[in-house]
Every structure is written in C-alpha cells, then in structure tokens.
Amino acid sequence: MSHASQRFRTSLCKCGLAGFVFVLFSSCAWSARTHEKALHIFFVDVEGGQATLFVTPEGHSLLIDTGWSGNDGRDADRIVAAAKKAGVSKIDYVLITHFHIDHVGGLPQLVARIPVGTVLDHGDNRESTDAPTVEVWHAYQQLLATNKVKRLTLKPGESLPIKGIETTVISSDGAQIDHPLPGAGQEDSSCKNAEHFPPDQTENLRSLGTLITFGKLKILDLGDLTRDKEMELVCPINKIGNVDIYIVSHHGWYQSNSPAFLNAIAPRVAIMDNGAKKGGTPSAWDTIEKSPRLENLWQLHFSEEGGAAHNVPAEFIANPEGPDAANYLELNAWPDGSFEVFNSRTKKTKHYAAR
C-alpha cells in the first residue's frame, strides 16, 4: 500500500462514514478524490543506479531502469517491494534508458521475480569496448530470446503506449526531437556564453529520455544523457520548456547537468538517484541548486564526494551517512499540478501546491 493510500484510509477512519457523507467537501472527501486521481512515483534505492517506478491512477505501471546485476538480486527485490507498496503485481512496461550495468543489469533478476510485459529501449548497444556493458547487453539479448518479454524500440517524438499519462520521447540512440514541444520554443539567452562540450563516446549519449505529462504536471527523465546532447535540446532554442519534476540526469555527475540546460528546464523540484559513492558531483550539485525556479533538491543518498558543503539538509535525503538502509522517496502527484514528496526514512511528507 502506498503512502497516499495509508493517508486516505486514516483520514476516512477519523471522519467516520456519516461525517464523510455529510461534509462532502471536507478534507476526507478531498482525500478520496485526490487519491483516486494520484500518480505514484517510487524512487527506489539501487545505490547509484536507477530504478523509478510510475503507477498511474488506473494501476498501469512503468519502470525506468532496473538497477545493477549481482548482489543476490538486491535491486530486483527492492523494485518488487516498491511494486507491492504501489499495489501492482505486474510491471507493464520497463524502459531501459541505455545499456550500462547500473541501468539494465538488474532486468533478468527482475523478470524472474515479477511478470514484465514489454521492454522499451533505444535500439542495439553501440558501446562494444566496455566489458560490463557488453556482458549485460548479451544478457538482455538472451532474455529477449526466451520470449518472456516483448521488445519495443522508440524514436524521438514517439509516445510510450501507457494509459493514464502522456509521454513524449525526447532522445533516443543519439537522436533528439527536432521541433519544440507545445509551450516551448523560446530562445535561451544563457546559450550565448555557454561552454561547449565534446561529443560523448559511450552509451550515455544514446539514452532513451522521456517527458511525462500528468495533467498540468511535467516530469523529465533523460537517463544519463550527456552535456553535449543537453545543449542541443536547449540551445539556441529551448525545445523542452520548463518542467516541474526533474529526475536528475546521470546521478548528479558533472558529465550531465550543464548550466544552460538547467536554466532552460527550470524545475521546481529535482530528485537525484545518487549513491553514497556515486554521483552528486559538487559542480553539478551547485548548478542544480542555482536553477532559477528550484524549490528543493532531494537525494537518495548523502554524497560522500559532496561533503558537508554539497549535500541538501538531512530532511531531503533518504539515506544519510552510514550503512545503506534501502530507504526510498515517493512522489504523489495530481492532475492540477500539485504534488508531494514522502521520505520513507523520516516518514514525513512535503506538499507542493499547484502553480
């Protein structure tokens, strides 16, 4: 059961049936309506990889990436636990942003633990010189050969076939959308003096990135898309526009999260799926924190690289210094653009009103 479900049941019990009927527009009735319409997003702690589970109000599910291989199925187990909290027994779609071990490695273990419908990807692996990448690519091919999952490759501008949310593919296999999205198209003034970056040579630049729209809310996930490709999306014309939720690219490493890009998308909230020893580069952390509309940055882990000066306050961190405790963050959103973030460690929720 999700945090929102627990809150709704508690509210209903406190109000009582008679009070619930009598005060139709009371907080109890509000809880009922908003719970029915809520999009639930679980940011699973896979210790520096990515695994983000979306569950629509209708119960349809999308998982972006599957964490690492090995570790006795640790990451797959944590994803299955999140699915159970969300009330789903099957993952309809698994989107693989790219074929690095911290993003696709856990897929075979996950499929062994919970039914998966269709896997979405950018096409074939293009990085043939990195042994771990080649290894997980072969494991992926072997999994597809068993016919346990279907495969769908997506291109920029296409939509994901998921009911309850609107999705647009922003980047895939090194290509990107070539026209601004509705509401975007403004010239980015910060591009004039922006630093230019050399082309990335890894799978990162091929990341399958998506913009997810739920009512008035916009959520951006670009996987590990690198700075050179970010610049193409916003300079000289901002093709994406402002977003509400930014799932921080590349775990908060400096190879992504360029200043011109953050200035262009200007998120209200950023959520960084870093690990204690992976991600959270101080320069990237500074860029995110200086983004013009940012209200809060949340982190899955305290970043050892960041130290005291480059980590957010403890209330915004799921896993502080010390042994990993597998704490997660849960974001619940509503079509009017309001949302809230729940920290499973502190058991506290912060609400963000619609704009």
Short structural description:
By secondary structure, the protein is of the alpha/beta class. It contains nine helices and 17 strands. The chain has a nine-stranded mixed β-sheet, with helices on one face.
3D structure, described in words:
The chain has 355 residues and is of the alpha/beta class. It has a single domain (39-347), classed as Ribonuclease Z/Hydroxyacylglutathione hydrolase-like (Metallo-beta-lactamase, Chain A), CATH 3.60.15. Helices cover 26% and strands 22% of the residues. It is built from nine helices and 17 strands. It has helices spanning 3-22, 27-37, 74-86, 101-104, 107-111, 131-145, 227-234, 259-265, 282-289; strands at 39-43, 52-55, 61-64, 91-95, 116-121, 150-153, 166-172, 175-176, 209-214, 217-221, 245-247, 269-272, 296-301, 317-319, 329-333, 339-343, 348-352. It has a nine-stranded mixed sheet, with helices on one face. Strand 1 (39-43) and strand 2 (52-55) form a beta hairpin. Helix 7 crosses helix 8 (259-265). It is globular. Mean pLDDT is 91; it is low at 7-34.
Detail the topology: elements first, then pairings.
Layout: H1 3-22, H2 27-37, E1 39-43, E2 52-55, E3 61-64, H3 74-86, E4 91-95, H4 101-104, H5 107-111, E5 116-121, H6 131-145, E6 150-153, E7 166-172, E8 175-176, E9 209-214, E10 217-221, H7 227-234, E11 245-247, H8 259-265, E12 269-272, H9 282-289, E13 296-301, E14 317-319, E15 329-333, E16 339-343, E17 348-352
Helix pairs in contact: 1-2, 7-8
